[in-house]
Write a structure and sequence with these properties.
395 residues; mainly alpha; globular
Length: 395
């Protein structure tokens, strides 16, 4: 059964009616009537989540420079997916709680302004290098740019029986996220309009299981690229974050279940982080390891999604916990908030550029320095101006 407004909010609304002659609904009461009484209370940035972004993008960078250092470093992308699913769903539920609907066109506009200008700037640089130099690392840039700019790199990679290694191959993950951003708000709007909040929560939980079942159906050693790159086969990682957002929006602040969740999320956040770090350090996620590969590409992805969701919940609910204090360290949080996207965009072309120049000594250091420089330029010259426009058009 959907929650009802608390007595304080109702009394405040009645006093407002008596004074102005019009009924004004307090945001908390509005959210409660729509079944998500806490949606607007969990809608600010969490420094620890931004710090987690920094660690994740650093792990991806090291993995692409030398995967032997962190054989399972690609799971950082899985963590990114869960964070994205959580943040986007939290924003959508907060808007629905305030307004009773979701303004989809403004949402898509904000997503475009946030992601596309910086991506197009990267594409332009790749095309310039491809047409003005003979660097092998930028061969095939026209195709790569076309796929990246339309967020279809993951579709191409999923259908490719080999390993597509173009200069923008890493944008497969952006394709997965953008396809999720396109579909999930539509589905969520349909769910919250037609179903009670509790049923929305149950449906989200059920959706988390479907990609796992689908991977089990698809599994074959030749289906690795299909599973790794498909939005349908990676959606549980995004939906795991969405489920955390729905749970937190659904529970009232005085609900004993929220107190219990806060306790256990705090206790499990550090073990979840440690297990993710262990996988990144020791497990060859993208290698051919026989039965382990089969287990990873079916249940392993869901297990990482569960660990990532546990960590996200712990960082959100326990800002005083040790993981939150460590990951919320100001430089880490600032980098994750402002530079993580730029670092992710630029690191892979930089790795390929230095490789084509036969840089071996100091390759990791050179990659870090050049990537950070390009990310800073991207943030200050491209991303921040467009982010200002996105904020002006926020509804």
């Amino acid at each position: 059964m959907a929650s009802t407004p608390d007595s304080t909010a109702v009394a405040a609304s009645e006093r407002s009616t008596a004074v102005t002659g019009r009924r004004r609904t307090a945001p908390a009461a509005s959210g409660a009537r729509r079944g998500f009484p806490s949606a607007t209370l969990h809608n600010s940035r969490v420094d620890a989540l931004d710090g987690l972004r920094t660690l994740a993008v650093a792990l991806v960078l090291v993995y692409h420079v030398d995967h032997t250092l962190v054989p399972g470093g690609s799971i950082a992308v899985d963590v990114f997916f869960t964070i994205s699913g959580f943040v986007i769903t939290r924003q959508l539920l907060a808007e629905y709680s305030r307004t009773g609907t979701l303004a989809l066109l403004p949402f898509y506009r904000r997503r475009w302004l946030r992601l596309v200008p910086a991506l197009l700037a990267l594409c332009a640089v790749c095309l310039v290098l491809a047409t003005t130099t003979s660097l092998w690392s930028f061969d095939g840039s026209w195709q790569a740019v076309g796929l990246a700019a339309t967020f279809l790199t993951n579709v191409f990679r999923a259908a490719d029986s080999g390993s597509y290694g173009g200069p923008l191959a890493h944008t497969w993950s952006l394709g997965v996220e953008e396809q999720f951003y396109l579909l999930w708000p539509l589905l969520l709007l349909g769910l919250v309009r037609r179903l009670r909040a509790r049923t929305v929560l149950l449906c989200t939980a059920a959706l988390c299981v479907l990609p796992f079942l689908w991977r089990c159906v698809l599994w074959h050693p030749d289906a690795v690229h299909r599973i790794y790159n498909g939005t349908d086969t990676r959606a549980d990682e995004l939906l795991a974050g969405a489920l955390v957002a729905v749970v937190l929006a659904r529970l009232r602040q005085d609900d004993p279940r929220l107190r219990l969740l806060r306790v256990w999320a705090g206790r499990l956040a550090l073990p979840a982080l440690a297990l993710l770090a262990l996988v990144a350090w020791k497990v060859p996620v993208t290698g051919n390891a026989g039965i382990w590969t089969a287990l990873w590409y079916t249940g392993g992805i869901l297990a990482v999604a569960a660990l990532s969701a546990t960590l996200v919940a712990g960082l959100e609910l326990r800002p005083d916990g040790l993981p939150s204090r460590l990951l919320g360290f100001a430089p880490l949080a600032w980098t994750g908030r402002n530079l993580s996207y730029g670092i992710y965009l630029w690191h892979y072309p930089v790795v390929r550029l230095l490789a084509s120049l036969d840089v071996e000594v100091g390759l990791l250091t050179g990659t870090v320095v050049l990537t950070l420089a390009m990310a800073l330029l991207s943030y200050y010259l491209v991303e921040r101006p467009f982010l200002r426009r996105a904020r002006r058009h926020r509804t």
